[in-house]
Write a structure and sequence with these properties.
- With 470 residues, the chain is an all-alpha fold.
- The protein is 77% helix and 0% strand.
- It has helices at residues 20-54, 58-86, 88-107, 112-140, 143-174, 179-182, 184-195, 212-230, 237-260, 274-303, 308-313, 316-336, 339-355, 365-392, 399-424, 435-463.
- α1 packs parallel to α5, α3 (88-107) packs antiparallel against α7 (184-195) and α5 (143-174) packs antiparallel against α12 (316-336).
Length: 470
């Protein structure tokens, strides 16, 4: 792990993981991150109910998911950079407040358009709080406690993503889809109360104006690409060409701006580390596949007649695996280096995605569990080592930026997968309500996800080839 830098809290104020204050702060950071992660997955299981209640098309339901992911992926770099400059605890708490208020508004939405817009606002709050959690762990805890704290954060936060469909299914079946947003309020209040105990930290060496052009170009590039992917089956060829052109020009302009500005949103020096670059490349592939597996499995099971709660229960193996094995995976990676866990993990996930093809032949538990169990074990093996590797590869002063980059590429991977996969497998309109159409699309989606996961394992094997144990 990187040494304590001048940007961190004073040594006397650093937290011990086993102290009462350290445990309370870590609990608050986990809780805030979990709420943001949970809302990225809990909505999947409620999509069918939302579509029926608000009269939404498949494209609109995609945007209910993607509106949140787009804001999160586009602005999470900004959130990390703001935390480094203005105080990581301060920006984190602002994000939690924002997220809570947006959740209340989402619960009251009366049309697909309203819900999409409010989900975008919710994603802005998530972008402010998400990178702050890891940056605070990196800067507020003692060096000897950081790896264990990150392992705990990754494991319990990962459980939130898996619990999301289960909780959402129960709320949809026994109350209303609106409660998947309203339940965020007490959780956010608890996170705010706990994280107020954390020491403040910032990058004291940060100077110059904030990189507003870089932030704007990030949003434009991701927004245009996502629109083009989501609207593939509905928009005209001219509109799609223009959208892709805007995305490409924004990427080129972003690279030019980041190279020339004195205070770039993403310091180019971060990518001088081969390990940092390889870990983030693997993140795009793995989290893209994770988003696809989560979305299509729930929709397939519901199309086959499962209730929302039953479909949510299908993710229970992920919850159990992350809870039991994430800390152990972090300890293993610390002993032998991240190369093997981050290679074997995605390959196991790929096998799990292929086993989920059995679901297309009949939605029964004996067909669902083998794939979900194998997929879950692979995910538990890779999540903690991935997070720790990204932060360890970056200088301490860039803790917020490094966390922001990794979160941005993770959300971008999920966003692009959710946007692109329906078109790639031939789903559109209300096909998600038709079992035959959904089954054909599900088969194609699982094959795509398996390919992405296998490629992620290959990237880790070669990209981390000479990484030493930490």
């Amino acid at each position: 792990m990187p040494a304590t830098s001048p940007t961190d809290s004073p040594d006397a104020d650093l937290l011990a993981r086993d102290s009462r204050r350290g445990q309370l702060v870590l609990s608050g950071l986990i809780l805030g991150s979990a709420v943001a992660i949970l809302d990225g997955s809990v909505v999947n299981v409620a999509l069918r109910s939302i579509g029926s209640d608000l009269g939404a098309s498949l494209a609109q339901l995609q945007w209910v998911v993607n509106g949140y992911l787009l804001a999160l992926a586009s602005l999470v770099l900004v959130g990390g950079a703001l935390g480094d400059r203005w105080g990581r605890r301060r920006v984190y708490l602002v994000g939690v407040w924002w997220f809570m208020l947006a959740s209340v508004a989402c619960a009251a939405a009366q049309s697909p358009g309203q819900l999409i817009g409010l989900r975008v606002l919710q994603g802005v709050g998530a972008a402010l709080l998400t990178p702050g959690a890891l940056a605070l762990i990196q800067s507020a805890f003692r060096a000897q406690d950081r790896a264990a704290a990150i392992g705990t954060w990754a494991g319990v936060s990962g459980v939130a993503a898996a619990v999301g469909p289960l909780l959402g299914g129960w709320l949809v079946d026994h109350a209303s889809w609106r409660w998947i947003f309203a339940i965020n309020v007490p959780l956010c209040v608890a996170a705010i109360a706990l994280v107020r105990r954390a020491p403040e930290s910032r990058d004291a060496a940060a100077t110059g104006r904030f990189d507003v052009p870089g932030a704007v170009l990030t949003v434009v590039a991701l927004g245009a690409a996502t629109f083009a992917l989501t609207a593939t089956t509905e928009a005209s060829t001219t509109v799609l060409v223009v959208a892709w052109a805007v995305a490409a020009l924004a990427v080129v302009a972003w690279i030019a701006v980041e190279r020339r500005t004195a205070s770039p949103l993403v310091p180019p020096s971060l990518f001088s580390s081969r390990v940092f670059t390889a870990a983030n490349a693997m993140t795009v592939l793995v989290y893209g596949a994770l988003g696809g597996v989560s979305l299509f499995t729930v929709l397939q099971l519901q199309a086959a007649g499962w209730g929302a709660l039953e479909a949510g229960l299908s993710g229970l193996p992920i919850t159990v695996a992350l809870l039991l094995f994430s800390s152990r995976a972090a300890a293993l990676s610390a002993r032998i280096g991240p190369r093997i866990p981050m290679t074997v993990g995605p390959l196991l996930c790929a096998v799990g995605a292929l086993l989920l093809l059995l679901v297309a032949g009949g939605a029964t538990w004996p067909r669902v569990l083998p794939g979900m169990v194998v997929f879950s074990l692979g995910l538990a093996l890779l999540v903690s080592p991935l997070t720790a590797t990204v932060l360890a590869a970056a200088p301490g002063r860039y803790a917020g930026a490094a966390s922001g980059v990794n979160n941005a590429v993770a959300r971008a991977g999920s966003l692009l997968a959710v946007a692109a996969l329906p078109a790639l497998v031939g789903l559109s309109g209300d096909d998600y309500l038709d079992l035959d159409a959904m089954t054909a699309g599900f088969r194609g989606a699982m094959l795509w996800c398996a390919a992405l996961l296998a490629l992620g394992g290959v990237v880790s094997w070669f990209g981390l080839a000479r990484q030493e144990p930490r």
